[in-house]
Input
Amino acid sequence: MPESVYIHIPFCEHICHYCDFTKFFYKESQADLYLEALKNEIVSNVPGSKQPVKTIYIGGGTPTVLTVEQLNTLMTLIHDKFDVQGCREFTIEANPGDIDVDKIQLLRDFGVNRVSLGVQVLDDDMLVQLGRAHRVSDVYTTVNRLQQHGLNNISIDLIYALPHQTPEHFQKTVNEAVAFNLPHYSTYALQIEPKTVFYQRHQKGQLHRPPEEAEVAMYDILKSTMTKNGLHQYEISNFAKPGFESQHNLMYWNNAYYYGFGAGAHGYLPGRRIGNLKPLPAYIKQANADGHPVLRTESIGLKEEVEEEFFLGLRKMEGVNKNRFKERFGFSHKQLYATPIEVLKQKGWLQEDEEWIRLTEEGVLFGNSVFAHFLLEESDIKHVR
Output
């Protein structure tokens, strides 16, 4: 059975210039229709009530753009279908400045115990360039408001390698971010994605990206500053105080099964990966028709599961557990990967001990090249069956 649940709320007050997630401008009447369709999808796919799960994550979009009444509708649905009381981690994403006291109290009453804030950068001018609606002062107000009402498990998202950003500028943002003394930080280098404002500017030569060496310098700043402030790197892009690692994200990196509900959401069930319809009218129509608003289903065989065990596992600083691999698949990793592992160790990109295989510091910088070594042919898998 799936261990976790992801629920996508695709509405935003503003569309950021870099964002390629499934999102639409918020309209209250449209959100009402969406929540009804979402209910039909969840009820059609989750048998019974109070199903046990380890984590629940509500992402977007901006889930907290919903009204208090709409959030109440959503939370009631989640409580009916899943055992929230037995859930380890219940996260909702929010933007600084858009979550008031009434919403915070409602979320707490329904068992939400973690909030992920989309801060991105602590510089007002750069926030404007990104198309963000909030300002730095909103970050302080929102963090304080959450803490005052008992929601202390807060994560901040940061983006680096932004247009015109220098390592010195990024150092200032990281210093200010860690001064909040929060338990978790997620950090990502800017990616230029199709169908975004930044992509259009990039195509026209109007987007100034920092050079690669500046991006590497920013990543080094990130790691050293987090370490100095008691935050350990447990995944390529994530840092936490001990015990505050994101349990939901670890579920992804541990290659576990999960439900994905909502427009554009993805789920991973035994033998298949499911991607939902993205256009809002199409999603609502199909979810109301039969509860299965699926765009595509991808078969996941042994080959794909083994590959993903390494792709995802090597994102974690602890790496891939050899014993867990053998327990899951019934054969040793050496039967498939002895040669590539030795090659990568010689390059200085992998290290190995009795229990784990993990990236070196240099290997993290060449992650995509490392992962390519773990692609398989179907004929490789036949030899281990």
Q: What stands out?
A: Residues 310 and 320 are 6 Å apart (CA to CA).
